[in-house]
Amino acid sequence: MKKYGLIGQSLVHSFSKPYFTEKFAETPIDASYENYEVDALESLEWLLEQDISGCNVTMPYKKKAAELVDELDPVAEAVGAINTIKRVGSKLVGYNTDVVGFEQSILETGLLSQIHQRALILGSGGAAQAVSFVLRKLGFSYAIVSRTSGDFVYEDIDASVMSSVGLVVNTTPLGNKENLADFPSLPYHFFDEKHLAYDLIYNPEKTVFLEKAEAQGASISNGLRMLVLQAEASWEIWNS
């Protein structure tokens, strides 16, 4: 039996295990998919030792895992973060399917031609790096917003900044299943119908971030479609 799994922290609400368990069950492939919760990621040698064929990687390890694999595919190397690992012989190769998932899902909204081609990316982790890679490809300019660094800290965001952007992407965990009441500290009253608010979180379906933006007239999208698309891309990598 082949072994696959998800590396991250606090994975009890993860989408991946039930999704891939069901997907393997529908195929002739004899494989299992498990959660591998780790408090720190210092090495990936245990993947080889336990004969694991492939893994997904979630926060907060997407950037760290990119440093630990033996090889990176060109997109993952350009992004500097990975969310998919494939064992090839005795080597671990890293890929970034978040890029595929985010690009296809945001294009599917059909809204990009209607908004200002400038974005705010909330957060500076591995997911933010995938988002910024895609936005550059799509011709967007963008600024990174974080609590302590980046192009802006949250306190910098005002009416002028908000009126200059059309897209706001939340890549932080604020508002996820374990932090339902949390949300990025933005001046939400400056959102309007000219904005698209996109949250990489998929559970809950509508975070407080999305609720607040929608209440001001903004279009919204959550991360479920992105998640499915990146999972399918991982599947193709493992089984190609």
Textual characterization of the structure:
With 240 residues, the chain is α/β, with parallel strands linked by helices. It folds into two domains: 2-96, Leucine Dehydrogenase, chain A, domain 1 (Rossmann fold, 3-Layer(aba) Sandwich), CATH 3.40.50; 99-226, Rossmann fold. It is built from nine helices and twelve strands. It has helices spanning 16-25, 45-49, 62-68, 74-79, 98-108, 126-137, 159-163, 208-215, 224-238; strands at residues 2-8, 31-37, 54-57, 71-72, 84-88, 91-95, 118-122, 141-146, 152-153, 167-170, 196-199, 219-221. Strand 5 (84-88) and strand 6 (91-95) form a beta hairpin. Helix 5 crosses helix 6 (126-137) and helix 5 (98-108) packs across helix 9 (224-238). The longest helix is centred in the C-terminal third of the chain and has 15 residues, at 224-238. The radius of gyration is 18 Å and the shape is elongated. It starts with a strand and ends with a helix.
Helix-strand string: EHEHEHEHEEHEHEEHEEHEH
**Count of alpha/pi helices:** 9
User: Any idea of the CATH topology of the largest domain?
Assistant: Rossmann fold
Name of the CATH first level of the largest domain = Alpha Beta
